[in-house]
Amino acid sequence: MKLCMVLLCGILLGGCGRSSDPVRDLIRDLERYPEYSLILHDLRVEDGFMPDYALQFKVLTASGQRISGRDTLVYEERKTDWLAVAETEYVRYENFVGMVVASKSLNGQRTGSQQAYPAGYQYVGNSSYGFWGGGGFWQFYGQYALMRDLMGGWNVGRSDWEGYRRNREQGRPYYGPKGSNGQSTFGTRGAQMKKTRPGFYNRQVQRRQAFSNKVSSRMGQTRSSSGWGRSSSRSFGK
To answer: Coil, strand, or helix at residue 196?
Structure first.
């Protein structure tokens, strides 16, 4: 019911030309949990004279508590409905699919989209959830396989984890280590997205290429109409 109200609110605000941030609206409800992660799950654009933009989120919440090493936390995962947003909000989040855009840990520490990071990374390095295994890679305990699944099978190494911590402390998004081709590991156009959701990945790459072509075409028309790039026999400096 609350998510439906958020959806209705987003539609009404969008129709009035105002921008509503769905992350801010969802956080209000999630604050009742001792721990949560809000993950951008999907994007949608319906083209037209005035394109319609929407976002969908995955929510990971913890209920219970951890006292003196006794863990009664129960984790639940669910998805929101599609939430209508203004173009400005769509652009703000479009690079973060598969990443945490807002979170709260058991100690009350919170992060926002400026510190977006790959889902599951906040549990790495915490001995309550796992340990550093052979080869320097993090291993989750069996009961926390959900956190491992959030990463799509990606194994986090120590240098990778240090990079995540450094970016988080500096208030910057972290997309994981870059491959030999310069491609980031996580995010909307990251290597993990290409591996786990190839259809979605290809649509995003095609959409970005189409947008780049459109911008290039417009710039070319502007240059032509203004006389830029035309050949001329006029000489200067003589």
So the answer is: helix
Task: Give the pLDDT confidence score for residue 209 in this predicted structure.
Answer: 75
Per the structure, how many domains does the chain have?
Answer: 1
Domain that residue 160 falls in = 2-211
CA distances from 116 to 31, 133, 137, 201, 217 (A): 18, 26, 22, 19, 33
Residue 53's nearest CA partner among 16, 117, 10, 2 is 10
Residue 147 or 20, more confident = 147
Nearest in space to 153 (alpha carbons), one of 187, 195, 190, 184: 195
Task: Using alpha carbons, select from 134, 175, 128, 185 the residue that is nearest to residue 158.
Answer: 134
Q: Is the pLDDT of residue 233 over 50?
A: no
Contact between 59 and 217 under an 8 Å Cβ cutoff? The reply is no
Neighbours of 171 (CB within 10 A): 10
In the numeric block, the tokens 């291993």 are attached to: 139
Tokens for 173, please give them.
């998004």
**Residue 119 domain-assigned (yes or no):** yes
Residue 201 within a domain: yes
| Residue for token pair 């959830």 | 129
Mean local confidence (pLDDT), 142-151: 88
Residue 36 has pLDDT above 90, yes or no: yes
